[in-house]
């Protein structure tokens, strides 16, 4: 029996995607060859890759003046590539600090150039997203950087700020969970290992005119212009990850697209938040308006009870409910592929746990 998977990433994949991989791992669509044995130049890989890029474009309604491709190196490599390309010498870049992932990105940018902190949630322990009027952004800053969903702290931007400078967002943990107006962003990127597939690939969505504003003299892999020209195939891409991403994208489309994913995210997360809100036993450290629908962070009255919750949930076949080691507590990640039945099982388990221990 499959476990109920609440891991924060790598995380749950649609069962039918795993089954398709199983069925085709040896012989891809009768080609007599596995997708992971094929050359990434031309042939069956490139055909599949182009289909993946088109489906991704369709799902997010990505305008034609944007590049879309996949790279390796994880989302973390982008923490360096973004400032190397776009933090213009003599200028600053602005960062919104909402938790662990935006902090890591900001720290890397500081090593490359001048950084302006547009807002920092440190004093309130990163429990909310700033209001637009709280952001301090110089009009001549190179770009404004934010993390759309802080996977560890469990806070998510509902509405993105309107700024006159390029807006760059890390959407590693909430891509494809809702419609996004891509045209408001200069760049959206993220690791695929939460809502899109197995670890390995990083998606890049970038307005083409950003390339005109980039720094020169970058080494080959660090230069977005090269990747734009080669659509991510300058060097060997993470082929297995990309193949699985293609299957996940097909699944999202078949399920009804990002609108449907949005409805599912709303239904699943409100079920768990309603249990937290209707009891004194469970508490959410996060401000209501900033709550993430992907990563639900919550606490119990004691660490002892939290440890028991994790132990007993494992016995019920539920995995990944331990909070990130840096913050403790509990966290349930409810990504796109997490079925409603698993969330209902978690809800029932929470109620029963409270009844026995509350
Ligand atoms: N950004 C966010 C929001 C994340 O959740 C993560 C990984 N959990 C990263 C960046 C880093 O991603 P990677 O491990 O692919 O480098």
Automatic annotation (TrEMBL):
UniProt cross-references to InterPro entries, sorted A to Z: Aminotrans_V_dom, Pser_aminoTfrase, PyrdxlP-dep_Trfase, PyrdxlP-dep_Trfase_major, PyrdxlP-dep_Trfase_small
Enzyme class of the recorded protein, top EC level: transferase
Keyword line: Amino-acid biosynthesis, Aminotransferase, Cytoplasm, Pyridoxal phosphate, Pyridoxine biosynthesis, Serine biosynthesis, Transferase
Gene Ontology biological process terms, A to Z: L-serine biosynthetic process; pyridoxine biosynthetic process
Pfam families reported for this sequence: Aminotran_5 (PF00266)
Reactions that this protein is recorded to catalyse: 4-(phosphooxy)-L-threonine + 2-oxoglutarate = (R)-3-hydroxy-2-oxo-4-phosphooxybutanoate + L-glutamate; O-phospho-L-serine + 2-oxoglutarate = 3-phosphooxypyruvate + L-glutamate
Cofactor note: Binds 1 pyridoxal phosphate per subunit.
Cofactor: pyridoxal 5'-phosphate
A GO molecular-function descriptor: pyridoxal phosphate binding
GO cellular component: cytoplasm
Positions bound to L-glutamate: 41
Pathway membership, UniProt: Cofactor biosynthesis; pyridoxine 5'-phosphate biosynthesis; pyridoxine 5'-phosphate from D-erythrose 4-phosphate: step 3/5; Amino-acid biosynthesis; L-serine biosynthesis; L-serine from 3-phospho-D-glycerate: step 2/3
Sites bearing N6-(pyridoxal phosphate)lysine, chain numbering: 194
Family of this protein: Belongs to the class-V pyridoxal-phosphate-dependent aminotransferase family. SerC subfamily.
Role: Catalyzes the reversible conversion of 3-phosphohydroxypyruvate to phosphoserine and of 3-hydroxy-2-oxo-4-phosphonooxybutanoate to phosphohydroxythreonine.
Record's subunit section: Homodimer.
NCBIfam families linked: PRK05355.1, serC_1
Name the UniProt record assigns to this protein: Phosphoserine aminotransferase
Species assigned in the record: Candidatus Ornithospirochaeta avicola
Gene that produces this protein: serC
């Amino acid at each position: 029996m499959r476990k109920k998977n609440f891991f924060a990433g790598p995380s749950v994949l649609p069962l039918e995607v795993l089954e398709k991989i199983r069925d085709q791992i040896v012989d891809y669509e009768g080609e007599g060859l596995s997708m992971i044995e094929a050359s990434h130049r031309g042939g069956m890989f490139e055909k599949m890759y182009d289909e993946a890029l088109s489906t991704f474009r369709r799902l997010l309604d990505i305008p034609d003046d944007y590049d879309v491709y996949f790279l390796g190196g994880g989302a973390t490599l982008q923490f360096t590539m973004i400032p190397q390309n776009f933090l213009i010498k003599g200028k600053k870049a602005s960062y919104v600090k909402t938790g662990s992932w935006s902090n890591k990105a900001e720290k890397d940018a500081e090593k490359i150039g001048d950084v302006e902190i547009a807002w920092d949630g440190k004093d309130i322990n990163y429990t909310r997203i700033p209001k637009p009027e709280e952001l301090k952004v110089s009009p001549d800053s190179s770009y404004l950087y934010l993390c759309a969903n802080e996977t560890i702290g469990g806070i998510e931007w509902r509405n993105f700020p309107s700024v006159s400078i390029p807006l760059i967002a890390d959407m590693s943990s909430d891509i494809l969970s809702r419609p996004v107006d891509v045209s408001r962003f200069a760049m959206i990127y993220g690791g695929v290992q939460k809502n899109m597939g197995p670890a390995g690939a990083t998606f890049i969505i970038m307005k083409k005119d950003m390339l005109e504003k980039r720094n020169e003299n970058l080494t080959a892999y660090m230069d977005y212009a090269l990747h734009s020209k080669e659509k991510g195939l300058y060097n060997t891409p993470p082929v297995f990850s990309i193949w699985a991403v293609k299957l996940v994208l097909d699944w999202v489309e078949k399920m009804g697209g990002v609108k449907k994913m949005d409805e599912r995210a709303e239904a699943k997360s409100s079920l768990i938040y309603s249990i937290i809100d209707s009891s004194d036993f469970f508490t959410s450290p996060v401000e209501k308006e900033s709550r993430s629908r992907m990563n639900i962070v919550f606490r119990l009255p004691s660490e002892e009870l939290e440890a028991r919750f994790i132990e007993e949930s494992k016995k019920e076949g539920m995995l990944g409910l331990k909070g990130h080691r840096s913050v403790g507590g509990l966290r349930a990640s409810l990504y796109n592929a997490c079925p409603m039945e698993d969330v209902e099982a978690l809800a029932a388990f929470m109620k029963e746990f409270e009844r026995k221990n509350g």
